[in-house]
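::Amino acid chain::
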Amino acid sequence: MSATPAEQLGALAARVAKDGLSTARRDEVAGRVLDLLGICLAALSERPAEVVAATVGEWGGHPVATAIGSATRLPAPSAALVNGTLGHSLDFDDTHLPSVLHPSAAVVPAALAVAEQDDVSGPAFLDAVAVGVEVTCRLGMAAYDREHANSIFFDRGQHATAICGTVGAAVAAGMLAGLTADQLTSAIGIASSMGSGVIEANRTGGTVKRVHCGWAAHAGVVAATLARHGLTGPPTVLEGRFGLLRAFCGDRFDIGAVTGGLGERWESDRLFVKPYPCNHFTHAGVDAALRLRGAGLDPATITGITLGVPEPVLRTIAEPLADKRRPLSGYHGAFSGPYTVAAALLGRGGGLGLSHEDFTDAAVADPARLALAALVTPEADAECTRIFPHQFPAVLTVRLSGGEVLRERVSHNRGGPENPLSAHELTTKFRMNAARAVDDATATALAGLVLRLSSDSRPAAITDLVRARA
């Protein structure tokens, strides 16, 4: 009898835990860990994380793992819940396309909690993160509708990261806990009963979505622990009649996306790191504006701007247009095509072109930015729509007072595999985020520890440093 998809994933995880991955892949994963750690530090003052920290503080339990920014250690599942919430609170975490998943914010906190609890090596930690993220991405792709270029999870109002990330987190945690291939298969089966998350908050408000990655990380650690103690899960949990994919997606899933080229082709190579602290749909417009600004464009000469984007993103970054041109708050400005273009053309240039300071309530009320944003008209662009959602492209057309017309098209997002951030840029983003919570010396030490995980650094040293400076 051939192995089921869950059994194939369990076998891959067990094999990687035993044999390890290449140094090059480990170093790549270390960059993702650095990115998420900086985001967690930047989010320490966000209310959802404070709520979660207060909640798990009431739970109590054996203190074995660090909640970033706290001097108090927690049980591993609780630490994973806090850190996963921090990782997704700013919507600044990495994205897999075209599934539109945010895998690292679910997988890294789960792996970090278990790695600290058991004091595992840096390479083992990176291997577990790599496989956990890969499992998450493959499950997301199984529910990607190629005909309609859309996630079936999202189409049904479900947060794909919260569901798929729970399984990926369980695999990563299970690898670090030393589970066998059979136990890892059970961890997948158990986690498939735990993942959930609806995205109604995207439409009508509420902060619960920011906890989704934390809950996925928490559930992943719990699932792996239950499997270690002997609880079992169904081997057909992914594709079965009452399995995860059929339960969430009906008949609209592709199980081949889970197993095709497994261990040879890495779906997680399609991860995009966000360079700017705003909605990902706005990024190519920002890229284009920064290019024009770098070429010497004087904003004072602009008489009109057309922002061409994929048709499906208009409802997120362009509607209602009056509100998008005059954001109601700094957070609202992060979801505005007109405002982000104006900010890129007029901004302070911090971070990698835009920084957190560009999305304060004061910044979005700046008269000069509002005047320029009022000149921005978003519209659907056919070429951008064709490329979407494999990229989130844009074309910026700028009309000047002298009659000239400038056009800048961005087909490959900055931070994606075709246009990746350099090691220096990744460190710059980390420092921008970390500066909101720690001093420069601590940020330098943390970056050094993370980037040496594939050689002589251990995850516990990272959490010790964060905890000591809390």
Remarks:
- DSSP finds 24 helices and ten strands in the chain.
- The longest helix spans residues 122-142.
- The chain has two domains: 5-274+428-468, 280-410.
